[in-house]
Structures are given as structure tokens and as C-alpha cells.
Amino acid sequence: MGRSIESIWKEGFLKDDQLVVPKLNDLYNQKSIHIIDKILRMGRINLIYIVILSVFFLVVGIFLDVVYLGIFLSLLIIAHLILALRHVKQLKEIDKNVNSYRYIKSFDNWLNNSISEFMLFSRFFYPLFFLSFTIQGRFSEDGEALISFLINKNPDTILVFGIPIFLMTGVILFAGLLAVFGGVLYKLDLNIVYGRVLKKLKEIISDMEELKR
Amino acid sequence: MSSDFYTSSILPHSGIIIKICRAYTDTQEDFEDYYQEVCLQIWKSRDRFRGDSKWSTWIYRLSLNICLTLIKKKKNNKQHYTSDCKMPSEAMEDSHAFSDESLNLLYDAIKKLSEIDRAVILLYLEEKPNKEIADIIGTSPNNIGVRVNRIKERLKKILDGKIN
């Protein structure tokens, strides 16, 4: 080889056409597509888990001879699934034939709308989930034993449907707390699974908005 | 990113960004993505430039780090890899090439080096002093001198193999 690598480099780049600067257009197109794809992929996996969970509760309910509890929990999860599928349908209606900023904004609006509906749903879901176990427990042998024990310990207590009032109050209070904080619990759950990608989505939108200025 | 910032602070250094991005990509599409990502990250990180090195050195460092990160990401992302099913040699045949044939051969040879050796030789060819290369790469200047000689030997061997 005759020429040194230094001279190949230097002389090669002396020609004007070697360093053509690529155009900076649609800078965030790929990024937004990538992040939306990722969220959708995670969402699909989540839906599969919901279906599995619904079947799981039904099977375990039958297996453990708590059929009503199994059916109820399964139906509760199916309600979650129906709500999720309704949102998936709405997602499909988003116009993809727009620029990446408008598309990602529409997606973000859809996401926020879905999250607020699921937060509302969770205010029913968590208390019902808790109450179904409590009611099942009430009619179980251990539950009966516990109630008898509590009545023996507090013979003066008022009974509501055969349950000491303080126990009933505690259960209702806890269910009430779950109803109040159900949305917050959902958000915590959401952040554990989707926190990183949702943060990334917000960052992309904020960068795109800054770019537009 | 304002066009003012791009024109005044990035465009004058676009040459080195292009040279670095070319060394870490095999297709025109990847090259444009890497270039855009580097420009974007420079813009996003501009407030972190403290002025204790030259702006150009900072751009070098950032460009290298971003390309190395993107390469790592691409390697990890099997899905991306399978969709990008062109073989490197095949991909290099497309528009991702310089008009100077010797330069193309040199770039092909550089791409055969390890990722860090690529960074070292690019900085050396841009006539950066060993101390600055060491500073950017994060090693000692003595190590850089020895390493550059070894890399040059390797490049010569690769190029001789190609030309003869």
C-alpha cells in the first residue's frame, strides 16, 4: 500500500462532496413510533395476563371449593378486560395519517383518557375484590370460628347480620378506603409496570413541543 | 432545537459528527438516524457543557458516546436486528459510501476494528493530541500512543489485504 492512512483520510475529505450533512427532518418520527409500539406491546401482554388471571381465579375457585368467589373474581377481571378492549377499539380509531407530533399527542390523549377511566374503575375493583374475599371468609369454617370467638370475647357487642358491629365497621371502613384510594393504587400499579415508558413518552412530547417553538 | 443553535453550534462541527457516525453504521438509513440522534442529544445536553474543554472536544466526546450507546442498543435489540436483515457487506454497497474509493476502503477497514479502537483512530486521524484522545476515551496518553501504533499496523494489514 503506497499511501499512509493519514494521507488517505486527509486527501479523501478534501473533496467537497464527502461530508454531505443529512437533513434534520421528522426528527422524532422513529422515536415516537418506537415508544408507542413499546407501550402497545406491553399493553397486549397485559391483556393476555388478564385473561390468564380470570381463568386462574375460576379454576382455583372450583378447585378450592369456593366456586362463587372464583366466578365473582373471574367476572370482575373480565369487566376489566372488557374496559381494556373498549379502549383498544378507541385506539384503532386514532388517525395515523398525520404527522408524528399530532399522532403522539392523540395517543397521549387516548392514554390519559384510558388511565382516568381505569382509575375510576379501580375505585370499584379494589373494594369489590376485598369484599368478595371477606364475604367468602364470613361463610367459611374459619370465619365462623373467628366470629364466634369475637362474640364470646365481647358478649355485649351489637351484631349486624350475625357479625360484631366493630368487625363490620372495620371491613366497611377498609372497603371505603379502597374506594377512595383505588385510583391512587391503580396509578401506583401502573407506574410499576409502565412508569419508565410513560415517562419517556412525556419527555418525547415535551422535546417535540420545544422543537416546534 | 432552534435552527439558530443548529447552524451556529452544530453545523460547524458536522464534519466530525458525520465521520464518527459513518464509522459506526453500515447503511445510509442508520447513518442518518445516528446523525440526527447525535444532533438531538447535543442540543438536549447543551446546558451541561461547562466550558472546561473546547466545544469541539465536547461534541467529539458526546458523538462517540452516543454512537457507542446506539450500537449497544442495536445489538441488544434483537427485534431491530432481525428487521434490519441486510448483511453489513451488502448494506455497504448501497448509497452509504464516499466518492473517494481509498477513503471507502479505509472506512471499511476502520469498521473491522473494535468500537473503542474505531474511536481512537478517528480522533488520531483528526489530529487530536494523545492527551485529548486519552481524555475523551478515558485512558492514559501513553496507552493511546501504543494503541494508535497497533491500530495503524492493523489497518495497514487490512488495507494491504484488500488492495493486493
Mind explaining what this structure looks like?
The complex is a heterodimer of chains A (213) and B (164). Chain A is mainly alpha-helical and 213 residues long. Chain A contains 6 helices and 2 strands, in the order H-H-H-H-H-E-E-H. In chain A, strands 1-2 form a two-stranded antiparallel ribbon. In chain A, a hairpin with a 2-residue loop joins strand 1 and strand 2. In chain A, helix 2 (29-63) runs antiparallel to helix 3 and helix 2 packs antiparallel against helix 6 (165-212). Chain B has 10 helices and no strands. With 164 residues, chain B is mainly alpha-helical.
- Tally of DSSP helical segments of chain B: 10
Shape of chain A: elongated
Helix and strand composition category of chain B = mainly alpha
Mean pLDDT of chain B: 79
What labels would you give this structure?
heterodimer; A: mainly alpha; 2% strand; B: mainly alpha; Rna Polymerase Sigma Factor, Chain: A; Arc Repressor Mutant, subunit A; 2 domains; globular
Short précis:
The complex is a heterodimer of chains A (213) and B (164). Chain A is mainly α. Chain A has six helices and two strands; from the N terminus they run H-H-H-H-H-E-E-H.
Please render the helix and strand layout as text.
The complex is a heterodimer of chains A (213) and B (164).
Chain A: H1 5-12, H2 29-63, H3 67-92, H4 100-138, H5 141-153, E1 159-160, E2 163-164, H6 165-212
Antiparallel strand pairs in A: 1-2
Helix pairs in contact in A: 2-3, 2-4, 2-6, 3-4, 4-6
Chain B: H1 3-10, H2 14-23, H3 28-45, H4 55-76, H5 78-83, H6 88-91, H7 101-111, H8 115-125, H9 130-137, H10 141-163
